[in-house]
Amino acid sequence: MNGEVEEGEDVDFTDYFWGFACYVVYADVASGNYEVLNWFDDMDSDPDDLEDKSFSYVLDFQNFALYFSSDGSVNVSGGSMTFNGEYLAILDMFLDFDGDTEDVDIEEVSGYGTMGCN
Predict the structure, then answer these.
(1) pLDDT digits (tens, 9 = 90+) for 82-118
(2) CA distance 64 to 93
(3) How far is CA 87 from CA 6, 68, 94, 102, 104, in A?
């Protein structure tokens, strides 16, 4: 932060880190389009059935939500990966959850994004 915060000033983690996203492709050499697994339907599949599939998850620190991919595709091209599809969103995950699963608000939302990869 190089002295940008004055002594005694509160620093909020979410001022600097808005979230964390992860795209995963099950392929030896990733290139092209990969169908997205549904986290809740396909993750118990035989590991051999995961080849040439993908998934994504996002942890949103601004809105305290967690997103698991449920449909769509991940495209790997050159030095980037692009997700386009649907997420199952667990909203207000850290604010309202008291251990009772009836308190969890889950919605299906559209999502997209691109990140660099090597």
Answers:
(1) 999 999 998 876 555 555 556 677 899 999 999 997 6
(2) 6
(3) 39, 5, 18, 20, 15
Q: DSSP letter for 79, please.
A: T
State the Cα angle at 106 between 102 and 110, rounded to 5°.
175
The Cα 90–Cα 94 span in angstroms is 10
Return the pLDDT at 57: 94
Residue with structure tokens 């449909």?
A: 71
Return the amino acid letter for 92.
D
Pairing verdict, β 80-91 and 65-77:
antiparallel
